[in-house]
Amino acid sequence: MAGRNHLYIPGPTNVPNEILNAMHIPMEDHRSPVFPKLLTPLLQDLKKIFRTETGQAFVFPATGTAGWEIALTNTLNPGDKVLIYRFGQFSHLWGEMARRLGLDVEIHQETWGKGIPLDRLEARLKEDTQHEIKAVLATHNETATGVTSDIAGVRKALDASIHPALLFVDGVSSIASLDFRMDEWGVDGAISGSQKGFMMPAGGAFLAFSQKALKATETATFPRCFLDLRDQMTSNKDGYTPYTPALPILYGLRKALDMLLEEGLENVYARHFRLAEGTRKAVAAWGLKICAQPGFESDTVTAIMVPEDKDARDVISTAFNKYNISLGGGLSELAGKAFRIGHVGDMNDVSMLGAIAGVEMALLDTGFDIIPGSGVAAAIEYYRATAK
User: Fold this and answer.
1) Would you tell me which of 262, 358, 367, 379 could form a disulfide with 282, CB atoms 3.0–4.6 Å apart?
2) Do residues 161 and 96 both lie within one domain?
3) Tens of pLDDT, residues 294-342
4) Could you give the CA distance from residue 85 to residue 116 in angstroms, rounded to a whole number?
5) What string of DSSP letters covers 57-90?
6) In a domain, 1, yes or no
């Protein structure tokens, strides 16, 4: 098929040519005296994306999933109680990881389509007068359902209950795309990955930890080696890594940070909101509904529900095989019930209109009763009215 595959999944996302070119480098000596000129400013600028001045940033040649494990094993002890709300596949997987590692996981089931219930969280924390809960695991953006939770509200719940638990945030599909304020929100561990808002290939776990979390590494008793923050801190202070780094990831990150900071984080957040809102206008024009309930809508991915007599997998298959467009599938409880449009990373109004047009053709081809051009028209009018 002529033309490239159009990637409209919520990650991995499209990689700009500037980043691809930056990653195309010869290997070099990562123990040379000039290597710190790459790594040290890289870690400092990464802190700007996490919006932290007091925390410390880290880069691991790994994934966001490894980031979950880094946060848990470097600060907690086997048998510690952690609290998590399950409202999608990725919050489920993080809780399952904690269980498999040997933590006492308190999972609260929440409706898929909603996020963290702040009132119930605060009530539960106030009940925990003995402070048995050592960490709250908060999924900022649940990719499976297109739901964003209020992390500032989670911090308020912790403060209102005067609870000392660590606050860890899965920001894999939010950081570098959605508003995130580590210091202001009192986040102790922020976890992200290279393949979403950072617009890079998968393979980089980007994290930031508060001083409180770093202090906890001194008493954590989980076995750890490759994922040990202490080894990173020891080497990073001199501008090096404790083992061979993934150099293309570091050079790609350098370019990604330059691009994000040049655009300005507030502009990045506003762009993602516009892309998402145009998508939501199109969905409404088709007469369909999204999974996220009002107030929880994500600006990086929209999960679209299909009627009971339809199978979302048919839409995804038609979009791919006929129009060379990749869409996200429904995961776990949403398998066959929803498809997902990613609007994260290197995208603009025109690229989103391509996604909406392709989805609209696939919907028509699979027998959906929609008016041809309705979704595209709704998105066009919104983008035209809000363009600067």
Assistant:
1) 379
2) yes
3) 999 999 999 999 999 999 999 999 999 999 999 999 999 999 999 999 9
4) 6
5) EEEESS-HHHHHHHHHHHH--TT-EEEEEE-SHH
6) no
